[in-house]
Amino acid sequence: MRLWGAHVDPSAIVYHGMQVRAARRLRIGARTVVGQHCVLDARGGLVIGADTNISSDVQFYTAQHPWNGPGFTGAELGPVVVGERVWVGPRVTVLPGVTIGDGAVVAAGAVVTHDVPAWTLVGGVPAAHIADRDVQDYELATSHLKLWWW
Ligand SMILES: CC(C)(COP(=O)(O)OP(=O)(O)OC[C@H]1O[C@@H](n2cnc3c(N)ncnc32)[C@H](O)[C@@H]1OP(=O)(O)O)[C@@H](O)C(=O)NCCC(=O)NCCS
């Protein structure tokens, strides 16, 4: 991904099978882990903060067709920003223009259509508030997983 221009911290881990669009607009922070088969669409800008866990099969989209336009021509872009110490559960879809706050958790299978406040748990379709989290300070211990780096 770095060869294509992505800014990926050397301590981050990205598992196999991901798709990247517009790598030059992708940033992944320190110690962050991105699981298998994720879609990292950075056409509108995709920033994933440090110490964040992206589970498998998560799809980030930063572009979409105008849904009410003729022939769905053109593209609407919206950056996606994921904070630090976030966990995005498996099979979550994050739509263009969404910001996920620090320490937030998105439960498995959610479709995130609006910003997620920091240190909250959200889930469902569309994702809605489930609970608040305690604010905590920690770093992900990912170095022992380096064998999976590619
Ligand atoms: C975030 C997560 C851990 C929360 O699960 P949990 O601890 O069972 O959640 P809770 O028991 O506190 O549930 C609180 C409420 O949220 C609901 N809820 C939990 N997970 C949900 C989900 N994925 N989507 C929608 N609602 C969910 C529960 O039904 C419950 O609602 P209720 O109070 O009306 O009954 C879970 O949703 C998840 O995403 N797990 C991912 C598993 C995974 O990735 N495993 C591999 C790790 S390597």
Quick overview of this protein structure:
This protein is mostly beta strands.
Strand and helix layout:
Elements: E1 7-8, E2 13-14, E3 19-21, E4 26-28, E5 33-34, E6 39-41, E7 46-48, E8 53-54, E9 59-60, E10 63-64, E11 76-77, E12 80-82, E13 87-88, E14 93-94, E15 99-100, E16 105-106, E17 111-112, E18 120-123, E19 128-132
Parallel strand pairs: 1-4, 2-5, 3-6, 4-7, 5-8, 6-9, 7-12, 8-13, 9-14, 12-15, 13-16, 14-17, 16-18
Antiparallel strand pairs: 10-11, 18-19
The structure holds coenzyme A.
C-alpha Rg (nearest Å): 15 Å
The proportion of residues forming helix, as a percent range, comes to under 10%
Shape: globular
Work out the strand percent. 25-35%
Tell me the total number of β-strands. Answer: 19
Q: What is the CATH fold-level name? A: UDP N-Acetylglucosamine Acyltransferase, domain 1
Q: List the ions, cofactors and other small molecules found in this model.
A: coenzyme A
Question: What quaternary form is this?
Answer: single chain
Q: What is the total number of structural domains? A: 1
SSE sequence, one letter per element: EEEEEEEEEEEEEEEEEEE
Walk me through what this model shows.
With 150 residues, the protein is mostly beta strands. A hairpin with a 4-residue loop joins strand 18 and strand 19. The model has no long low-confidence stretch (mean pLDDT 93). It has a single domain, classed as Hexapeptide repeat proteins (UDP N-Acetylglucosamine Acyltransferase, domain 1). Helix content is 0%, strand content 32%. Coenzyme A binds at residues 55, 89-90, 105, 107-109, 123-124, 130.
